[in-house]
Write a structure and sequence with these properties.
single chain; alpha+beta; Alpha-Beta Plaits; 3 helices; globular
Length: 94
């Protein structure tokens, strides 16, 4: 089982959203992940780091699935791509 801890630095546009609007976004990201066989285990808003959102994903040992999902999530096929996520930092956990 491979898990990915993804810390995301968000854009000013994201930071202007209400808390309720912010909470909707990870649900959409989870739906995109599921199309690639990747499961979002949980997400939150961390304290004490520069990033604004942290998500934990699981990809059943297949790195390729996660990287394909991440490519669509961050830069290609979603309406939110590039709009709310400025930068990410990923820790792979085996």
């Amino acid at each position: 089982m491979v898990r990915y801890i993804v810390f995301s630095e968000m854009t000013p546009e994201f930071l202007q959203l209400t808390l309720e609007e912010r909470k909707e976004l990870p649900l959409r990201w989870s739906q995109v992940a599921s199309q690639y066989g990747v499961k979002m285990l949980f997400w939150g808003m961390p304290l004490g780091v520069h990033e604004h959102v942290v998500c934990v994903f699981e990809a059943n040992g297949n790195n390729e699935k996660f990287f394909k999902f991440q490519r669509e999530w961050l830069s290609l096929g979603t309406p939110d791509a590039g709009k709310y996520v400025k930068n990410t930092r990923t820790i792979t956990v085996y």
